[in-house]
Amino acid sequence: MGRLVVIEGLDGAGKRTLTEALTKALRNLGRSVTTLAFPRYGESVHADLVREALHRGHGDLADSVYGMGLLYALDRRGARDVIANDMALSDFVLLDRYVASNAAYGAARLHQDAHGEFVRWVRELEIARFGLPVPDAQILLRVSPEVAAERAERRAKADADRAKDAFESDDDLQVRCARVYDQLAAGAWLSRWHVVDGTAGSDATELARLLVHPG
What we know:
Elements: E1 3-8, H1 15-28, E2 33-37, H2 45-54, H3 65-78, H4 80-89, E3 92-96, H5 99-109, H6 117-129, E4 137-142, H7 145-158, H8 171-186, E5 192-197, H9 204-212
Parallel strand pairs: 1-3, 1-4, 2-3, 4-5
Helix pairs in contact: 1-9, 2-3, 3-5, 3-6, 5-6, 5-8
């Protein structure tokens, strides 16, 4: 079975860029790589409902932390077999966002920390009940909320399809979410975490070596 590696971080942290760089670095080391990003907009009805709710569709759905958390979880539940198949065929499966995103953002919205009820609920729902595979490693691409917000703003101006949603527009939420992410990484939630400085620029080659030869 291939190794499941997740890249996490705030909106605007640069997860897509790191995914692409890490994919190239792992392939340069002779490893096969498959990638997948969540939410699966355009592929999953649950993901599309999330996007619509975040842009003020479906009444007050976006106000329900547990309701949104369930939609995110159902999107991943729908991809469970895809992930398992990719792990059977590839040395590495890289995911842009996964279960920890749900835990971090939901906890932050409820003003809870990584030890609170929402994080426990996410783990019980997605891992225990839905049977999603546990990551072998998770990467926290850490940037300050200010830098992440600036990048998200630039991205929204450059790409009409990536307009900022309700979560991305909430600066206080991003600050709280960054704090929860730090706690999840420090506590090795679900697996070992690698914390990468997203402001200075990540060394994808060194990160690939760490993943191929974990110490």
